[in-house]
Description:
Helix content: under 10%
Shape: globular
Structural class: mainly beta
Low-confidence stretches: none
Amino acid sequence: MDKLSITGRANATVSQLRRLPDYLRAYDYGLLANEARQVRGELPIYSDVELDIIQDGTDRDMYPDVSWQDEVLNPTGLRNSFYASARGGAQVARYFLSLGGSSDRAAYKFDKNSPYAANTGYKTYNYRTNIDLQLSPSSMLFFGTDGFMSVNNNPGVADTDYIWFAQSNLNPLLLPTIYSNGLLPATSSVASLRSPVVMINQMGRRSDQQFLGKFTLALDQKLDFITPGLKIRGQGAYDIQSFFSENRSIAPALHQAVGRDQTGELITIERVPSSTVSYSRGTDQYRKYHFESTLNYEKMIGDKHRTSALVYYYLSDQKKSSEGYNNLTSIPIRYQGVSSRFTYGYRDTYMMDLNFGYTGSENFQPGRQYGFFPSIAGGWVPSNYDFVKNHLPFISFLKIRGSYGTVGNDRISNNRRFPYLTVVNSYYTSPWGSSVINEAVNESVIGADNLQWEKAIKSNIGMELNLFNDKINIVMDVFNDQRNGIFMQRVQVPQYAGLVTMPYGNVGRMKSLGADGSALFKQTVTENTSFTLRGNFTYSKNNVQNWEEANPRYPYQEISGYPYASIRGYQSMGLFKDWDDVNNSPAQFGKLMPGDIKYRDVNGDGTINSDDQVPLTRNTYPMLMYGFGGEFNYKKFTLGVLFKGTGRTDFFYSGGGIGTGYVPFFNGVQGNVITLANDPRNRWIPRDYALANGIDPSLAENPNAIFPRMTYGTNTNNSQRSDFWLGDARYLRLQEVNLNYNFRSEFLQRLKIASIDLQFVASNLYVWDRVKLFDPELASRNGEVYPIPASYIMQLYINL
Length: 800
């Protein structure tokens, strides 16, 4: 009987939101809003008297000054979790059992007296059970089950991200948290222009519950009675996921104050009428059956030849209730395939692997359903040579390896199923001039009966190197992927073909290449002191070789020849200097003024339009990602540090419909204004306006301003996507610092405790970047999504 081993863990996590958008308060917002109107020749929004009222705070009903972050946000959060596991058994049977759970406090402030605030927060529960039964000396039966359940209870009818979006879109002058007469505020029926305080505390309750479960049964059988080294494994699994949500919503009457009467009482208009309690729910379920079997053979011939062979078969069947909305999509998604591998090694110095896969998919017509994907790999270990051992003893291990092979993809880009089928619909119609109703048919989707597996040819060359008795470990790989026959919807089929919709075809090609690697250095300083340093990186890029598209007018408009998902827009030439610059430049968008963005006329036709859009950046994903860190050990203390970062990561502050949260007054009354815009050095200001409003004239008409001449509302010209708004979100983040102490003593042993580990973990402590305003990983969202918090975790491990 093996000793029963029990491990327990409990932790408490404090999370903190550290990099939040810094928005203007009411008075500065009002001044800047007036400037945005006046520099465009429009009347100001707020009179001098109103600005005095805003500054003095004498009428917070009509002219509030609300920091919605302070009103809504919990800047710190608390999370508790626990975990316990036990393992034991004997030679015939072994078991493992674990239980865990966590509880998170609500992310936003709520009124504890609200009837909808009870039992709020996010809770999770998980379990795992494994049993291994030794049925015979050659047979092993395994049964395992695991599950995860989450319960997310929130007051209000909006989730965390929507609440955050709402508070980021309300300027400080738009609404009070509540009117002095007790009425609840709103400016319109648009949900994002309602008070998030009302959403949280006055509009009901919602609950989301999810369960994920898996059951696995496997049998391992040695077949040494046939030949030594032969064994077979069969495994079946059942996955289930269920989701249930329910909303109990109520809507109180919401009002907007529009003035005061002669007695000073508020005059209000009902913007949203009240509604009684309503109930809604949603359910979804997913299930998957999976079976696989592996026949494996291993044999050592003499002391030099190492061989193995494997045959693997799998079959899967899955479906999701929400995806089954017609006869086709309600059919389960099924896969079936077989693969095999043969390996040979000579003296563990020369190695070769031969592999193939033969996989079937539903997405191709009979006769094309199966794809064959072979590959070959080889390795060479020169460190096993006597010459290297004798003359290069500092090399502990050196392996050179390479591979070449194919893999397949059967998923159409929009997840369309059975794309080879033409969909025919029936309907009833009356011929022209007749009252007789006849049944008719038409084609709604044209199938493509020539589709086949999309294939990628993958090649790789790598090296593994250990030096100085494995103190230094280096792994490096260089890879190249050639994708052929990429699924694309045809666009060059002529109209006279008479197709209702364009079919798909294997017409795309793309090449990707890159490298990744890791390095590790271990050093023992003294008997009680040691440290480990490690680092890794991944670099990749791609190029579209063929993309079917309508023939563009200019070569730079082609998708082929550029990286996949390249972002296109206008090239900025800075800001218009004066009226002569405006009048003598090509026509652009809308009514132009000095201080607006000036674009390059790429094709030289005297007009700026879509023909002048060029590739501005590869895409919004970094080509380079890296990390480094280390562990430092002293007696029973262990200190760990981890950094992670990226290379250049392009994003756009504005353009393509975005800009709220960064560009001042991008959507007029909707959206906050960041304090960066309040600095006169950062925005283009007409000199006459600066002189008339006490702004240092030396700061006026700054050609290097971050923001062009302001507009109250969307500016057709300045909101175009261009490199004027291009930003770089590369960063280096102090991702984690952890400190661990391992405590062992005779006293603990008398308590039947083997050891106790006390651990402190801090994550997302600091980030070095160029964005500054928002977290660089969320830079393109301009502060409209919940930020990444810093967290501080105290953990206690008890090992019995």
